[in-house]
Amino acid sequence: MQKPPITKYRPALVIDLPDRQWPNRTIEKAPIWCSVDLRDGNQSLAIPMNVEEKVELFQTLVKIGFKEIEVGFPSASETEFAFLRRLVSDKLIPDDVTVQVLVQCREHLIRRTFESLQGVKNAIVHIYNSTNPLQREVVFGADKDDIKQIAVKGAQLVKELVPTLPDTNITLEYSPESFSDTELEFSLECCEAVSKIWQPTPDNKLILNLPATVELFTPNVHADQIEWFCRNISKRDSVTVSLHTHNDRGTGIAATELGLMAGADRVEGTLFGNGERTGNLDIVVVALNMYTQGLDPQLDFSQLNEIREVYERVTKMDVPPRSPYGGDLVFTAFSGSHQDAIKKGFAQMPDDEKALWRVPYLTIDPKDIGRNYRAIIRINSQSGKGGVAYIMEKEYGFQMPKAMHKELGAAVNQLADSSGEEITAEGVYQCFQNEYIGVREPLDLIEYRSERLDDATVEGWAVVKYRGEEKTLRGTGNGPIAAFVDALAQLGYKDYELLSYSEHSLGKGATSKAVSYIELRSPEGKTRFGAGIDTNISLASIRGVVSALNRLVG
What we know:
Number of strands: 14
Number of helices: 17
Helix content: 25-40%
Structural class: alpha/beta
Number of domains: 3
Strand content: 15-25%
Distance between the termini: 62 Å
CATH class of the largest domain: Alpha Beta
CATH superfamily of the largest domain: Aldolase class I
Low-confidence stretches: none
Radius of gyration: 34 Å
């Protein structure tokens, strides 16, 4: 990197817009969405999609709800041409979907593009030419008037060719490519020249696409550029102002959102931000951001996992695990405090689909986008009691007493610490089994039965194995548990106090098991929980006592 003073790069532009309005606005409705997955998201692939893969992705985009879909650059390659012809021949384009075709402002390419549109009901012909100073000087060696004439001639030819497709409703779209780095006045001049040729009306609008082909500045500068343009373009009611941001600075989403606040009507982008270099705008994120603000995005991402599966298969790209909404780890909490807050949030949510979503750390209900709750909490050495308790309840049905959460949480954390790895839900359950259910030393219950002698007394008989030796015990108490504890005095277990007892069913039906949670205190004042499972609730309780005793003396 260059040492100060840094002369290699220049700071952001300052747009003369002292009365800018966009900072005080909010996004109040969904824009017109246009997917460019089949072009921008295809040309950037190491292995471009074949026709069959393109067809599958097109059908997925239609299912999501896109009404404008750019199907490619049919004049650029036979694959692109053949794909559009396949859509036409197989009648795969719904009547309410408009296909968009991209073409440079060059005569033979425009003519070839019109050949590809035979039989299409609704089409957008998207012409473009580079307008920024760097392209003018380095690539074209042309002045501003030469560049403007390229756009004018392209628009004139499109207008001349429209009658050759009498059954096709054609909309013109023009992009001053690299709008983000073109003088605003010159971008406006080129757009006005195209508009003069096309003569748009409120019923036959011209799309003016203002691409941040390379993202160069902070999102607020982009918003200033869009607001300035919206204020100064003539026949504003006859023009659709469109955004097409890239992500070179990592702020393409923010630039789009501010651009909509600045007055834009339409957004071009791709699923999961696929595209050249750092990618295009991620439409999934912008649409779901709107949804979390209570706005209908007019796109259906309720089965996001399925959409992602198609995307990854046909593009051979991966959605990063931390990608908003769609990534593997988006609904995963490792921090113990986060886990506890999420658990409490779910517990207080009413059983009402219309209830306001209020779960800490989760901006959206995963269920709304087809994600499940299984992976919301995963356990490692940084996890806490809340996450462990959540997994035991949601995955396995154990509603442990709150005071028991800390005990099991510590055991799981110790396991994670010693292994250095994440503990799966199955690992948490196995830890519970090893810590509570499978503890059979020094005491193991073989048989227990009890009989009520009168209203105040229960007599119990137990067969146990104690330090490897089988023994028969007898005791009395005001209930089966008290009678068993009294019987254990014969083994030296005296003055143990029952602090708490709770139980619940695991599952439903006659064959379901019960689990009991027993908290005991030793004569020395140490406390431990035990847990017992059995089809008989009384035996589950006795097993819980044995578990707690073994954990106290173990």
